[in-house]
Structures are given as C-alpha cells and as structure tokens.
Specification:
The complex is a heterodimer of chains A (31) and B (178). By secondary structure, chain A is an all-alpha fold. Chain A contains one helix and no strands. Classes of the chains: A mainly alpha (31), B mainly alpha (178). Chains A and B meet through α1 of A and α3 and α7 of B.
C-alpha cells in the first residue's frame, strides 16, 4: 500500500519542519 | 510556411497543449499580480512585520511561480508552493477577518465586509495551478478517469486535509504560543 510512505524518514522530516514553521507563523502573526 | 503542412497530428496536439499552458500561465501571472497589487495598496510596506508575509508570497506568486509552472521539471514544486500559499493565505486572511470584524454578523456583512473576496482570488490562482499540473499529467482522457484516490496526493482531498491540518497547527501556534 502507498500508506507505507508514512514510514519513510523524508516524510517525517518534511512534516516536522512544516509543523514547526506553521506553529511559528501562528505565533508571530498578530492582528 | 509550406513546412507547416507537414506537421503531424501529434505535433499539433503538443502545440495546442502548449497554447493552453501559455494561457494558464498568463492567467496565473495576471491573477497573482492583481492580488499582490491590491495587497500593496491596502498594506504599504511599513515596519509592520505582518506585511512581510504577503510581500514575500506575492513576489513568489508573481515572478517565480509562472516560471516554475512553465518548465516541465519544476511543475511539481510549483504545484506544491502554489497550493500551500493558497492555504496559508486563506488561514491568515480568515484570522484577519475574524479579529477585525465590524458590525453584526449578518450574511451580507460576512460576504462583503470580510476578506472573502481576497480568499476567492487565491483559490482562483489555486485552480489555475491545478489545471496546469493536470495538463502536465494528461496524456490521454483515460488518465483522468483512472484516478480514484481522492485523499491521496495530488488529488483535491489531499489539499482539503492539508487546509484543515495547517489551520489546526496555525491556531495552536497563535493561541498557545504567546
């Protein structure tokens, strides 16, 4: 199955970086 | 001129595909320019750090994405960047609307006094990007019908999942990380 994609290191790396970036974006943007 | 008569059907098909691609890339450029110029008009570049986000995403959308979509080798990153810019723009502009909302929350106010118009421009840009990406994948009409996995990349369900996920993560950063 293509769900095996979830276990590849690249998937984790990109998602951890992306989650950190979006969390930071939510932190800095204040209206 | 006489040489044009010898163009095979296949070449003619490629030419039409290229013409559609050129029109879509032009549409992307004009739509991005329109959105970006509107943004520069509302928020001139001042010391406010929040205005840097639309500035940078505007520069990427207007100058980088049309080029990335044009070359076959960079269509996939272009599709990703275009989609995530639409998602991030939607989330931040929705937040802006909620924070700065004035007047009673009537249907008319929600439609006309919010950033719904700006968000619509973004999703128009997303649609153009998706059309360019699908055009790139399109080899025959059968290819389109064969796709069945709605929630898997590069289908729309994948984008809906990411819209919800990014909104959740962004909200956590905004609410919990002071």
């Amino acid at each position: 199955m293509r769900w095996i994609l979830l276990f590849k290191p690249g998937w984790w790396v990109i998602h951890i970086i992306a989650i950190a970036f979006i969390l930071w974006l939510g932190h800095v943007v204040r209206f | 001129m006489d040489g044009s008569r010898t163009i095979s059907l296949k070449d003619e098909g490629m030419t039409k595909k290229k013409m559609i691609k050129a029109i879509l890339v032009a549409g992307l450029f004009f739509l991005a320019s329109g959105g970006w110029l509107l943004h520069l008009r509302i928020h001139p570049i001042v010391k406010d750090a929040d205005n840097v986000i639309p500035l940078i995403s505007g520069i990427i959308s207007v100058f980088c994405l049309p080029l990335l979509f044009w070359f076959e080798s960079t269509i996939t990153p272009a599709y990703m960047i275009n989609g995530f810019l639409a998602i991030i723009g939607t989330i931040i502009m929705t937040q802006f609307s909620i924070v700065n909302f004035k007047g009673p929350a009537t249907l008319g106010n929600i439609i006309l006094n919010s950033t719904l118009a700006d968000i619509s421009i973004l999703w128009g840009k997303f649609a153009l990007g998706k059309a360019l990406f699908d055009l790139h994948l399109l080899k025959s009409d059968k290819d389109m019908a064969a796709k069945g996995r709605f929630f898997r990349y590069p289908n729309m369900g994948w984008w809906w999942v990411h819209l919800l996920a990014l909104a959740a993560v962004y909200s956590l950063g905004n609410i919990l990380w002071k």
